[in-house]
Amino acid sequence: MNTLAQIATHMPHDGWGGGPGWFIIFPILWFLLVVAIVVLIARSARRGFRQGAPWARQTGANPVAILGERYARGEIDESEYRSRLAVLRSATETGDGRS
Fold first, then answer.
1. Which residues, 6 or more positions from 78, have their beta carbon under 8 angstroms from its beta carbon?
2. CA–CA separation, 34 and 43 (whole Å)
3. DSSP for residue 56
4. What is the rounded distance in angstroms from the CA atom of residue 93 to the CA atom of residue 87?
């Protein structure tokens, strides 16, 4: 009998080696992988619902609100705010603007 055959006959589990531990470790690893994926999906879903889901967000924000925020931050003065607000309101009344 050659050397490889002798080694194979003396190995446990018909020559597969490794022992019974691998039959326990691999299911545990698969279970941990599935749990990690579920946790990541749940965390991203919770963040999405808190901040508004990306697929549910509107493409454009309200221009009047943006103008008000710019005025509140001091980026524009009162006269510029009023003139731009008048332009936005006239565009909305004629149906040219989004609101």
1. 71
2. 14
3. T
4. 10
pLDDT tens per residue across span 32-86: 999 999 999 988 888 766 555 555 555 567 888 889 999 999 999 999 999 999 9
At 13, list the tokens. 């589990």
CA dihedral 46, 49, 50, 53 (to 10 degrees): 120
Structure tokens at 44: 């991203």
pTM comes to: 0.37
- Contact predicate 76/84, CB 8 Å: yes
The residue length of the chain stands at 99
DSSP designation for 14 = G
Helices 63-73 and 78-94 pack at an angle, to 10 degrees, of 180
